[in-house]
Every structure is written in C-alpha cells, then in structure tokens.
Amino acid sequence: MNILPLKGQHHVSAITANAKENLHFYTEILGMRLVKKTVNQDDTSVYHLFYADERGNPGTDLTFFEIPHAGTTYEGTNSISLTSLRVADDNALDYWVNRLEEHDVKHEGVTEESGRKTLAFRDFEGQRLQFVSDEHNQGVAGGKPWDKSPVPVEHGVVGLGPVRLTVSRPDITAKVLVDVMGFSEVRSYTEETSSQTIRVFETGEGGTGGEIHLLERNDLQRERPGRGSVHHVAFRVENQDELNKWVEHISASGLPNSGFVERYYFRSLYFREPNGILFELATDGPGFEGDESFDTLGENLALPPYLENQREQIEATIKPLHTKKG
C-alpha cells in the first residue's frame, strides 16, 4: 500500500484545570489566537480550546482540555515532556525574554539546542514549553500569526516545533516511529541539564515542524498526568483517503487503535506506542471555518453538527467562558 509520509506535527493536546486563566495566558501573554472554543467530543462536560496561528492552520494548534479537578502532574518517564513553539528568528527570542519577564513568567534564558536557539519556560500550571527559533530552519513551513494579537506579528508563534518524548525503553518507541510511522532518525545531541543523549527523528519536509526528539530516562517513575501535562500529540495526514490507508496500515502493524474517528474539524486515528504514549494521526482539513467565519473564530461555543442537539444541555453544564471580542 502506497502511503504518503506524515507531514509533521498537527497539534498537541494538553490538560488545564482552569480555562479562564488558560485563555488569558495563551492569548494575552503568548499572543496565540483562540480559533475554536468547543467541547471534548468524548466528554462534552469539559471545554476543548484550540490556540493557533491566525486561522488554525495544521501544525500550529496547541489545544487544551479543561478538567477542573485535575490534580498535580508528577513528572516522569513515558510522557510527552516538552512542547516547542516556533518563532521566526533569534531576535524573537530576545523579545520573548523581555515579555515573559514583564508578565512574571519564569524562564531558563536563551540557550542552544541541536543547532537552534531556544527559550524554555512554563505556564501558570507548570506546562513544559519552549520557544524555538526558525532562524536557520529548512523544512515544514510555519503559519501566520494573527495581526490582532497583542504580540507583534514578526515575533508571534508560527507553529509547533519539535515535541519531546521521554521514555524508559527508547528502542521500542524508535521502532514504531521508523518502521510503522515512516520517520527517519537523522541525528542526536546532548541535553545540557541532564547530559543525556536525545535522538532526533523527522518526517515529511523535516525541520522544526517535522521532528520528534526522543529522550531515554529509566531512572524515573512513570509520569502521573494532571494539570500542566500533555495528553497526546497528533501528526498531519494529507486527507481522508490517506487517513483510511493509515487505518489499515496501523491495524496491520498489530498496534491497537481507534480506527477512523470523525472530529468534524479534522478526521483522526488514535493509537498508543509500547511505552504508552498516545499518538493521533489527523487530516489537514476541513479546518475551523466550517461553522465560524475567519473574523469571529473562537468567539462562540462551536459544536459539530452531531452534537448540536445537545447544545442546551452542554451550555447548562459548562462554566461560561467569555471569548467575544470587544
């Protein structure tokens, strides 16, 4: 079966216990656009918020499920342990040092990682994040920051960068990445803080928007997720026809999986690799403008058509979250 390579990161989905503060941090401090305010389709009692570039282009979405009673994250192995956000160049990192300090956001200063300048920081719940410079990037193209953001367009987030997986048995994750998902192992580097080797895998056009970084830590307990942890990482598939091929391919590989899942804004397939990390494959379209115009993205509670008959119940259950502009 001839399957097109995965095109890079599609989105990363994480957990927050406070949608209001989450909205403030990612829109008012990080300057990302809320492109969709909807609910978790598997549990409609909680919000699912999508932050991205100006229109939620695939590869730019950082999303959050609000779980109000989510406990503390106990960081450890077999986890998605770092999410990168791409910015245009090294100058943008200098801007972000100042902006983070203005908003009392702790950071680790600008360093170099695998030939790129980076700036590690955490959100208000301890979400592990870093900015990565695209100064010398060649590979998957970034998106376009929203021109109504509080952050100048030239310094705005243009998409998701490398995603780090920390695992106890790296070879079995690497085997899935290479033999099943079609990634190539391209290089390695040493992490400054731990002196551990990180292996780099890339797909599609590669570069910051097409890399997974794999870190071995067998000296840690398995991570206990909570607020500030990552739920899953998704990778880009061209269209539904290609996704159907991936459903067959993943099933033939012997990995238990969800089969085809309709998400309305994209179509998906979910499976776990042997260390327990949840992967999703998601189509580039249809996108976020099927039920809202470009100008009003994220302003209202959006529900896919198959949940519209539950709107009254859903709106009565979830806490109001003010997202209208003006």
UniProtKB/TrEMBL annotation:
SUPFAM superfamilies: Glyoxalase/Bleomycin resistance protein/Dihydroxybiphenyl dioxygenase (SSF54593). Keywords: Dioxygenase, Oxidoreductase. GO terms for molecular function: dioxygenase activity. Residues 8-134, 159-284 form the VOC domain. It comes from the Bacteria. InterPro entries: Extradiol_RC_dioxygenase (IPR052537), Glyas_Bleomycin-R_OHBP_Dase (IPR029068), Glyas_Fos-R_dOase_dom (IPR004360), VOC_core (IPR037523). This is Ring-cleaving dioxygenase.
